[in-house]
Amino acid sequence: MEERLWSGLLLLLGAIVLLNVVLFVGGGRLDAPAVQAWRTVALAITVQAMPFLLLGTALSGAINAFVPARVFSRLLPKRPALAVPVAAGAGVVLPGCECASVPVANSLIGRGVTPAAAFAFLLSAPAVNPVVLTATAIAFPGNPAMVLARLLASLATAAVMGWLWLRFGREKWLRPTVRHTGHRPGHSRWTEFRRGFQHDFLHAGGFLVLGAMAAATFNVTVPRSVLEAFSGSAWLSVLFLAGLAVLLSVCSEADAFVAASLTGFSPVARLTFMVVGPMVDLKLFALQAGTFGRAFAVRFCAATTVVAILCSVLIGAVVL
């Protein structure tokens, strides 16, 4: 735990130092208007998203420390096909960041929850929890349709992926590693909460700063002609932002602010960015591969990307 805490702290500090270096040292090499625009976008995304990241990681740490994993197995229906949508819907009331959802899903499987339901929760919890939906409403003011579309597309993706695992999943792809999540007898719950919160916040905060910098760089440096080439095509814009979500790896509590800054793209494309990001990105792939095995991560991430794009396009076309 201490090693992961220090790695998260170094990531956050490194990202902040890099942000300051670019802001204050790089100013002499770039045009003043470009530097000002970059600084405005990067700081605006970071400042707007930080309170939601703080709240989201605090709630995730509290659930990890104070809510026993057996609660989930008792609340889920016995039939796997019914347990999948219930587990997906549980993400609406049980906040958690994507970094925490992987070990929680592993713990649920270890305590008897069907893997399909655990994976549905893994996908939905970071995407549709109250913190994320509130952040989306603030990032897109006066546009409740975007919040509704994100909720529906994310729930649909989580449920479909759970049902696909029931139909096509193979145990040989899944090699759960026994890792503890939640309270351990004899340990202070408050200490576990503090350590979990510190790790999640420092780790996710570093990715938030890096994601804000990447989004600002994207907005300032990419020529308008390139944007027009992608944004002019409905499918190209969707695929482009889906790929961007995977690469940026922005925390789900903050990705709505990044999506809102991508004003050159259609609402459906920006919806796709917000649906794909919390379910498939580089850090999630690494977490899934380390927890469940590479064979699982490759298949699951690839299938999730396709399903998330299709659900975003279908629901976005109806709602937005």
Would you list the SSEs in sequence order as H and E? HHHHHHHHHHHHHHH
The assigned structural class equals: mainly alpha
Largest sheet, strands/sense/barrel: none
Low-confidence runs of at least 5 consecutive residues: none
Relative helix content: over 70%
N-to-C span: 43 Å
Instruction: Kindly estimate the percentage of residues that lie in beta strands according to DSSP.
Output: under 5%
Count of helices?
Answer: 15
Q: What's the gyration radius in Å?
A: 19 Å
Overall morphology: globular
Summarize model confidence as the mean pLDDT: 77
Total separate domains: 1
According to DSSP, the number of beta strands is 0
Describe this structure in words.
By secondary structure, the protein is mostly helical. It has one domain. Helices cover 77% and strands 0% of the residues. It is built from 15 helices and no strands. 49% of the residues are buried. The mean pLDDT is 77.
Ordered list of secondary-structure elements with their pairings:
Elements: H1 2-24, H2 32-66, H3 70-75, H4 80-90, H5 98-110, H6 115-128, H7 130-139, H8 144-168, H9 189-221, H10 224-231, H11 234-248, H12 255-261, H13 267-276, H14 282-292, H15 294-319
Primary descriptors:
mainly alpha
Summarize the structure.
The protein has helices spanning 2-24, 32-66, 70-75, 80-90, 98-110, 115-128, 130-139, 144-168, 189-221, 224-231, 234-248, 255-261, 267-276, 282-292, 294-319. It is mainly alpha-helical and 320 residues long.
